[in-house]
Design goal:
The protein has 93 residues and is mainly alpha-helical. 81% of the residues lie in helices and 0% in strands. It has one domain. It contains four helices and no strands.
Length: 93
């Protein structure tokens, strides 16, 4: 799909999309940064084993990768991307 950036409406849509993408990246980086810096030490304080701490770190990266494979099917089943985003917010660590 080609976008004609000579039209102000399309240029505004592209700009808005870029702004939202940057905000999404900042939110993701913050989540990962806080998760890696605080969750593992908290698990150590609770007495978690080395295996449990490793599992905690690896599952946080592995599970979303598998969910991404089924994202198109889930979106079609729910009927809109907005529903998928709202539901996924509640299952994000």
């Amino acid at each position: 799909m080609e976008v004609n950036l000579d039209r102000p409406k399309e240029r505004l849509a592209v700009r808005r999309s870029l702004d939202l993408s940057i905000k999404d990246g900042v939110a993701f980086a913050s989540t990962i940064g806080f998760g890696e810096n605080y969750i593992n030490p908290f698990a150590v304080a609770l007495g978690a084993s080395n295996f449990q701490i490793g599992l905690l770190g690896s599952l946080a990266q592995l599970v979303p990768s598998f969910i991404q494979l089924k994202a198109a099917d889930i979106t079609e089943r729910l009927g809109s991307r907005k529903k998928v985003v709202v539901i996924s917010v509640f299952f994000t660590p």
